[in-house]
Structure formats: C-alpha cells, structure tokens
Amino acid sequence: MQNSAAHLSRNRKYETNVSALFKPVPVQANVDDEDVGSELVGKLEKSEVLKILNKFAQRREIKALCSENGLDSYLQQQAFGSFRRYCIEADNLPVDLHIIFSDIMQGAGHIDDIFPYFLRHAKTVFPHLDCMDDLKKISDLRQPANWYTNARAITRKIVFHSGPTNSGKTYHAMERYLGAKSGVYCGPLKLLATEVYNKANERGTPCDLVTGEERKFGIGENSPANHVACTVEMTSVNTPYEVAVIDEIQQIRDPQRGWAWTRAFLGLIANEVHVCGEAGALQLLEKICETTGETVEVRRYDRLTELTVENSALGTLDNVMPGDCIVCFSKHDIYTVSREIEARGKEVAVIYGGLPPGTKLAQAAKFNDPENSCKVMVATDAIGMGLNLSIRRIIFYSLVKPSMNEKGEREIDTISISSALQIAGRAGRYRTQWEHGYVTTFKAEDLVTLQRLLAQTPEPLKQAGLHPTADQIELYAYHLPNSSLSNLMDIFVNLCTVDDSLYFMCNIEDFKFLAEMIQHVPLPLRARYVFCCAPINRKMPFVCSMFLKIARQYSRNEPITFDFIRRNCNLPLKLPKTILDLVHLEAVFDVMDLYLWLSYRFMDIFPDAANVRVAQKELDEIIQQGVFQITRLLKNTEAGQDGQDGMPSYTYNMRRATSIKEPRLPSSTRGRLTERLLAQGLLTPGMLSELRKEWDAQATATGSGLGLSKDTQETIIDSDDEKTPRRKRRK
Question: Which residue, 126, 36, 41, is CA-closest to 82?
Fold first, then answer.
C-alpha cells in the first residue's frame, strides 16, 4: 500500500514544535461580585495558594496526567503560568476551586485534587485540546483523489503527450480539443489561454476565455460556449466536458502553484484528459492514476527541428547575430546586456516576467517580423513558455538563477535540467525562418555545464503539490476562533497528513505574507482567504500598500471605484523617463490587475472593472513605449537627467484622469553597485535594512543623512517574478 506508515508524513520539516503555533487565549478572571468561597471557609492567603500551585506544577504525576490529556512540556508551561496568574490575580475564585485550596491548606485535601480545575482552565486557554482529533481529520490529505467524487464517478481516458519543446505535443492535443463537442484548455499563463481562445474562435469553434482578471465570450455573455480556455487555477471541476487539455503538466511539482495542476488532473470531469509536458512527469502521473483506478496512454513525440549545442561560447557581445536571444536571470543583466548591444548599433527586443502581456506580445512581434530592423532579443526565462518566438540561437548569459526554496528562502543555484531544456528548446521553431536551432553560453566556463545539462533527460517528478482549501480553513477557524488566518495556515500545514510518496504541501509564505498584512483589517474569514489568494508580487512595495488600502476600504463596505484607483495611482501616467519610472508603471499595472481579479470575486464592491480595463490597456501602451526606448531610460537613470536630454514628455490622457506625482530616487542612491548586489542576490533586503541603520547612525554622528525612504530603496530590489501567488495562483 502506498499509504503505508513509511510514506506518511506530517511535513516533518515544519514540525519543530507544533504546540508553539497554538496561541493561548486570554482567560478572564472570575466576575462574581460576591466571594462565596470566603464566606463558607474563610479567605485564602495568596502566598499559600502560590506555594500550592508551585508544588502542583512540579509533581511528576501531574505532568504525566497532562501528557495523557495532550499537553506537552510547552503547553504545560504556558497553561501553568496562565492558571497561576488566574488564581493569584483574581479577587475571588470560583467557589468550588476556593474550597479545594482551603481543604489542601487544612490537610483535608490532596494537591492533585486541583488537576480537574487546571485541565478545565488549560482547555479554555488552548481550545485545540478538545478538538485535536477533529483538526487532524480535517487536515488528512492522504487521498486527495477522493475529494473529487464527480470525476471518480466516470471512467476517464488519460492521454499523456510526452515530448520536448518544439515537438508538436500540444498541437496534437489541441486538435483533439478543437474537434470535440465540448472542451476545456487549462494553461499555465494568461498569454497561452488567450492564444487558444483566439485560435479556437478563428477556426470556427466558439470558445470562452476565463482568467483570474478577465472573461471573454465566443458567443455572448448569456450564451456560454461549449469550449473554454482558462488559466489552470480557474479550472472548473464541476462542469463536464468531452475533452480536457492540461498544458505544461510538469508544473505540478511547482512549489507555489503545483496544487492547481494537481486539482485539475484529479478533478476534471472529462471523458478524455489530455496532459502535455516533459517525459519526467510520466512516472508520477502513473502512480497518481493508480489511486484513481485509471491508466495512462502515452504518446511520445520527438523534436521537429534540429538543435545544436555550439562548441564555443559567445565570449563577447560583438559576436551577437540576427536571430539571437540572450537569456538572463536578473533585471540588472537584462538592462546591462540591452544597453551594450544597442551601443553596438543593434536594435533590441526585451522581455521579462514583470511586463504586461500586451508589451510582451509587442516585443515578440517586433523580434519575429522579418521586415523589422530588430533582430536581437534579450529576455529572462519568461520566454520558456507562453510566447511564439522565431529564435535562431539561445545564448545563456549565466546559468545561475535566484530561486525560492521550500521554506520561502531565497537561494542562488544552477538552473535545473528541466529549465535548461525548456529554454534551449526555444531555438529553432518549426516552420519559421530559423528551423535549425543553436544554443551556447556567453561565458566560456559555463559551456561545459550547459552541455552536461542538455545531454540529460528531465529529472523524474517525485511529488505533486497540494494546498489547503477555503473550506478546510473555515473548519479550522470554527474550532480555533481566536486564531489569525496566518496562524491557521501554519497549524494546518504542521498537522496535515500527506502521502509523501506522491504529494507535498505547497509553499504558503506568499499567502501568509498577505494574511499578516491585513490581519488587523476586520474581514469575514472567507473574504480574508480570497484576498490572500490574490496574485500579487510581494516584492513590490507600491502594490502591497495598495492591497492594504483596498482591503481597508472593502472592510468598510465602501465601493472601490475607478476614482479610488485614479487618486491612489496618480493617473494620468506619463511616458517613463528612467528605469525607476518604468518599474513604477509596472507596479501600477499590477494594481489594476489586482482590481480586476477582485472584481470577479466581489462584483458589488468593485463596480468599475470596465473603466479600469480601459485604463490598463492604455497603460500597457505607455509601458510598450518605455520598453522600446529602454536604453534611453538606462542612460537617464544613470545620468540623473530625468529625461532632460530631449526625450519627449508625452502625457497619455486616460479617461477621468488627473496629474501624476512621479517618484524619484535621490541621486545619492543611484549607484550601480547597490543595484548589482541586489540583483545578484548578494545583498538581501534584510542586509540592506541593517546597512541603512548603520548609515543613518553614521549620518547622525556626522550631521548629514541619506534621506532615503525604505519603500524607495526596496523599489530597486531586483525582482523578475511574475505575480504569483503564489500558493499560489496565477490567474
């Protein structure tokens, strides 16, 4: 049995001290006006009561009784302390407890007689003691397949389209989807879902689009189409389809979003479920299907075009050729490489994760157009999926990438085999001008590592992600009404039982970050949970501050209107003049994404989605213009000219808009060293905070100050993560 004891886990990496997660509930002193106990047996000497309590707490027999009732040493210490304060500070004790103390002092009672009263107090302080079995039952995640009864009630045909990038695996799955009477496509990105939506409708198959922030209809708003293209988090597990397609199935192991692929794979009600992805996912899918009583039909595909790993590194940007794409893993490198290539007289297209979808598509179209003078692209691994690019050669500027580990900590490590194959495979696209693809590195010392990575097959997937549902957390809150949402999530993760031969608990740090940010905002639990699922980048201070403002306004039941967005985002927005302006515009775009995401979940409180969407489209155009002139922005940033070198300062007049207050970083902080250290992960925000304290102390001593705010400093922190949640959840 796969659910044998050897394979059951309570997420031991988190299990340092589960009891410490349970916060003691304050207990009010006895509120009886009359001291009945004193009238019956006389007053108690508090000093004698304290002696009795101290002896009681030290007795081995009492500690054993505590353990039998679920109180470990940590809970015993907390409960004893609370009980002691309760007994000593109360003006009068409950009459039965008062009499017990009196009997012990008179030698007529035994000190152990206090235990029932202590246990009653302990269960008031720690209510989980009465419901621990219920909590463990709620968080028993050993058989997630059984959560989806409708899917288990039918016999599904599972087809795995296995192959590398540019092998046609998704094409064959999509042909079956388009030919079916009804179907759903579940993709990893909004761009991919939109592409399927457009393609289906162009081919005469009416198709609706469903993403976190957007709904589009193939027929009409009141006439749902039989086909749907959605982002994987938005997958319906209640609607029956003839054919379902789950793209990029290897994402099922993603530490933040893997739960969404697990949910789709287990829960889709479809006669045929076609999953597309790399070969390394097969073994895990077969094991999961053993728990559902299903089998996997495998269709293998080979790459349609040739891919050659070159024998020499690029060495210098002088050797860049038409059709080249230089892949970087930090914004700092993106900016540096773009500027140096354009300094050589070559136009550059730029793509990174934080750009709006429209800007990415515009940059891709510019690069793909044979008539356009732009022949070179500089991009992050955002090109790994979601964009059709005509690339001749992929050049890895570096093979080291910052990442987030299971504990939510930032790490810097060599890219995985899967990532290397995915990115390298973007070179040489079938039926384009560059059918033969090439791949190399910028640095000679990286080439051997790249050759080794590309010579291997993708690592077999070991586990699929899971995440607590809103219903599970609501049940926890019923039993633990005094716990915060962040605390409930921590307790759930630590108590949950997972079959770790198949599954793991996804990282909840982004969710907890948002939960703690709005902890003191009065919200119903279900609304609080939804807010914490919002797909925002927590490294963007402006986005986080707007998230908090929106939550506060929602808690007052006041509509969040377009005027609210206009005032707080300082519309209309101007063309960016520096990189910092561009970063701010990207943050404003993310705020509008947040508004649209929430508008589909709380329609009455977010009534102006149409106006925000129009403004966002215009903002996308502004950002496109900024990215087209990214080298000029870099020059302005370093020179501190703020566009005074002749760059036109157009203002885009958004509907119902007013003036802007553009944030500016003091010139003393524009040093490239700080930006480079942040970008490379060698300087963390925490270290920056410590340095700031030292600088402020030195400045105070010398009578001068840097005058740099925390939010402004954090704005330059390198971050190319797409909005995520997280557990998160991309649209």
Answer: 126
